[in-house]
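Supplementary Methods, section 5.1.

A reviewer requested that the exact input to the structure prediction be made available. We therefore reproduce it here, unchanged from the version used in the analyses.
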Amino acid sequence: MPVEVFRIRGFRSDKTALLEGRVTIKPGWQGRFYEDFEVGDVYQHPLGRTVTEVDNTWFTLLTMNTAEPHFNTEVGRASEFGRCLVNSTLSLAIVAGQSVIDTSFNAIANLGWENIKLTHPVFAGDTLWSETQVLSKRESKSRSHAGLVHVKTRGLNQNGDEVLSYTRTFLVYKEGQKTTTMFPAAKQPFDAREASPV
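The structure derived from this sequence is encoded token-by-token as follows.
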């Protein structure tokens, strides 16, 4: 991957890059492209997310879900679970969101969700993690710049219980085909002279 080097205005020297005031821009994680997916690979997504009562209540009411076991403590207490359940579509949204960094970060579009299974209740205070396995891939027939990737993602709680799973197909750019970047150019670049070797 190319690295861009910028020279700080008004500071010149013939010594090392650091003394010359040059700053090396190293891009952050750029996500996977079609070529990076290998059938059978498993990605354990890096960020866990603890679900709170506020998350559950706000999401449930925001989406106009009137099922009281998600937001009425008394109804939850009287249920077989003895407490409120986290809205399953919130759990699904969190697990799907966790997977984006490793799967559809460079996607053009989601093409379908299938086989959604809710296998274990989620409660406020549970921490959700997710992992994804690549099931298949193929080049797009209608878009030469992209390919289709089919994956299975599952969410786990802090005890390792699988709380949900689903399969998903998305259309993703091929390497070198995603050209847009929204990162703004800084009006004042970093000064390499502020960084000192340890």
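The chain has four helices and eight strands. These observations are discussed further in the main text.
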